[in-house]
Each structure stands twice: as C-alpha cells, then as structure tokens.
From TrEMBL:
Its cofactor is FMN. PANTHER family: NADPH DEHYDROGENASE C23G7.10C-RELATED (PTHR43303:SF4). GO terms for molecular function: FMN binding; NADP binding; NADPH dehydrogenase activity. Keywords: Flavoprotein, FMN, NADP, Oxidoreductase. Residues 4-348 form the NADH:flavin oxidoreductase/NADH oxidase N-terminal domain. This is NADH:flavin oxidoreductase/NADH oxidase. It comes from the Archaea. CDD domains: OYE_YqiM_FMN. The keyword Flavoprotein applies. Pfam families: Oxidored_FMN. It comes from Natronoarchaeum mannanilyticum.
Length: 364
C-alpha cells in the first residue's frame, strides 16, 4: 500500500505517528544571555503538539554559549538547561507527538541581535562575543563580529559540546536529536569551500570538509540510544553556481557518509552561507527537488525530509505519496496555524488516523 501523510514512519525503535514535522524555528525568547527554555517554548512547542504534528522539533539549540545566533537563543550546555527543556519534551510526548531537538552551533553567524532588534552584528561591548569558524573570513556585512579561525583544540571542543549536548537532550527526554549542518552555520561553513580555507584535515577535499559533520554525527550517535533516531539537517546547495561551492551532488555523497555515521534521516534545506546566493523565489515546494535528489542518489537506506514552501495538506500528502520525501517538514505554516496536522487530517478525510485531543473533539 502507498504511504501517505498519515502513515506512521518507523525509524529504529521510534514510531512517528504521521509524516508532519514542525520545522526548527528560532523564537529568540530566552531571557537575556541564559539560554534557558521559558513559558514561551513550552506553550509554542506544546501547542504544535496538540495540533497533531508527528514530530515537534525545537529551534536551533546551542551546544555552547558562543554557538548561539543571538543572546536570546535556546541552549543545552548545562544540566540546568536540560532541566528547563524537560517539561517541553514531556508535554510534547504526552500529546502523542515525538519530541525532537535541533543541536546547533552558529559559527561565524553568531553574535547578532534578534530580528525585531535589527539582526545587527553585536560586538563584545554590545553584549556580543567572539565567534569561531573554520576560517577567519566574516559573513559579508558582519565584519563587526569578533571572529577567529578555530584551532584543532577548538574542533575537538565543538565535537565534545555536541556530544554532551546530546547527552543532556536525552536526559531532558527528547526522542530525536537533529544535528544542524545547514544555513551557513558552523558545520555548513566547514562543508562549503566558500567559507572553509583550512589546510589541515578539516579543509580542502570533499572528505576533509565533511570530516567535522561526520565526526559530530558519530559523537551524537555514540550517546544517543540505538533505538532512537538521529537526523541531520543540511543545505542541499549553497545556490552559488558561479563559484566553487557546496552542490546537490556533494549533498548526495554526504548523505551516504552521514548514514554510515549513524544518521537515520537527512533533512534537506538549502542556502544561508553567503548573501550572493541565487535562491529561487521561495514558492511552493521550492527546496523539494534537493530532497528528491538526495533520496534518489544516496546509495544508503536513509530517510529524507523535505522542507520549504509546504503550506497545504494536499502538497504535504503528495510529497509522501509520490515518494519524493519520507517526511513533510512544515515551518512558517506552523506559525500561522499550530494545528496544521489536524486541519490536514480533516481536509484529507483522515480524522480516523490521527489522535484528536479530547478537549478539541467538538471541533472535528
Ligand atoms: C527558521 N528556520 C530555521 N531552520 C533551522 O534549521 N533552525 C532554526 O532554528 C530555524 N529558525 C527559523 C526561524 C524562523 C522564524 C523561520 C521562519 C525559519 C528555517 C525553517 O526551519 C524552514 O526551513 C524554512 O522556514 C522553510 O520552510 P517553510 O517556512 O517554507 O515551511
């Protein structure tokens, strides 16, 4: 039988009840500089779980303080952070959704103010901090952020920060850990020759540029239980066709390396590395061909998630039915409608295949 949006998906010992995932989305809602989850995170993520999404993923959650994008990002660098996240994971799970966490490091795109405060680079005397990156080349336009090239000791520290972030995420009750290697943040900076000029074993050839994300994935996999899935979000392309950059062909090769490192699903987004990117307009399914490419070309049995411009039930369902992707990852439409999955079930005549909260039954 053909799978559709309301078919469960088995990944290791975890069953996703349907194929809708809430895409990770920064909320910039921690109190100044502490990275601890607040009521906002509990209500925001909790309401997407009451809305029926099979997987509810946190925003980019920094594995160390200098890996935050803004001073208001979530973090998971201490046990106190895990304690603050635990009620989020518990509530999501209690609704029948699978709680997931995106583990992140912002690299050279760290230390900016939040969008509604201008997304401005923050120097250390404005509450910013020194960022680290594969090379000391700033993200264009953000020359005010203090930045230095990572030493080999920094590389080891970052791997350990992802490993211990995953351990804490597990203690907090999350079922899926996603490694954020997209959108021009640290791990993508290592992947792309546009941001990586290193001459050690973490730069140069495809294998060397891929080394860090592979080692991070292995480290997360080592501490993540065998029966729980690990996802990796990648940018399928830099959208910089005129220069030596990260491409969809490299993404498909990377998917194989990540699968060998223990990843169960590749979440395929795109871009974010450089402001010259030639991103398509962002219409319906605008990144789906990249996910499809990875799914078709990967030689491993790894699941693939598609994200970008998925806004309707029919669109999400068709992605799964037509085997273009295994998971429909929905971002902004979930900001507009926390109950996207319940609405989709209603529109697709599948209410008998989703758990409607008893409190909401009279609406369905
Ligand atoms: C995002 N996005 C994003 N991606 C990611 O991997 N980690 C993150 O923390 C964030 N943060 C974030 C915040 C906000 C407010 C938006 C709108 C987006 C990207 C997001 O997950 C998604 O990939 C894109 O929005 C494209 O999907 P949609 O929105 O077209 O469904």
């Amino acid at each position: 039988m053909t799978d559709d949006l309301f078919s469960p998906l088995e990944l290791r010992g975890t069953e996703l009840p349907n194929r809708v995932m809430v895409s990770p989305m920064c909320q910039y809602s921690c109190e100044d500089r502490d990275g601890l989850a607040t009521d906002w995170h509990r209500v925001h993520l909790g309401s997407r779980a009451t809305g029926g999404a099979g997987v509810v993923m946190t925003e980019a959650t920094a594995v160390e303080p200098r890996g935050r994008i803004s001073p208001h990002d979530l973090g998971v660098w201490s046990d106190e952070h895990a304690d603050a996240l635990a009620p989020v994971a518990e509530f999501v799970r209690a609704q029948g959704s699978v709680p997931a966490i995106q583990l992140a490091h912002a690299g050279r795109k760290a230390s900016i103010s939040r969008p509604w405060e201008g997304h401005e680079p923050l120097s250390p005397d404005e509450g910013g901090w020194e960022a680290i990156a594969p090379s000391a080349t700033p993200y264009p336009g953000r020359e005010d952020v203090a930045l230095r090239e990572m030493t080999q000791a920094d590389v080891s520290d970052v791997i350990e920060a992802f490993r211990s972030g995953a351990e804490r995420a597990l203690a907090a009750g999350f079922e899926i850990a996603e490694v954020h290697a997209a959108h021009g943040y640290l791990l993508h900076e290592f992947l792309s020759p546009v941001a990586n000029d290193r001459t050690d074993e973490y730069g140069g050839s495809f294998e060397d540029r891929a080394r860090l994300v592979v080692e991070v994935t292995e480290a997360v996999r080592e501490v993540w239980p065998d029966d729980r899935p690990v996802f990796v979000r990648i940018s399928g392309t830099d959208w910089l066709p005129d220069r030596d950059s990260w491409t969809r062909e490299q993404s498909a090769r990377l998917a194989d390396l990540l699968a060998d490192a223990g990843a169960d699903l590749i979440d395929v987004s795109s871009g974010g590395l450089h402001p010259d990117q030639q991103l398509p307009a962002g219409g319906p399914n605008y990144q789906v061909p990249l996910a499809e490419h990875v799914r078709a070309e990967s030689e491993r049995d790894v699941a693939v998630g598609a994200v970008g411009g998925i806004t309707t039930a029919q669109q999400a369902d068709a992605l799964v039915r037509n085997e273009r992707a295994d998971l429909a990852i929905v971002g902004r439409e979930h900001l507009r409608d926390p109950h996207f999955a319940l609405r989709a079930a209603r529109e697709l005549d599948a209410l008998d295949r989703i758990d409607v909260p008893e409190q909401y039954e009279r609406a369905y």
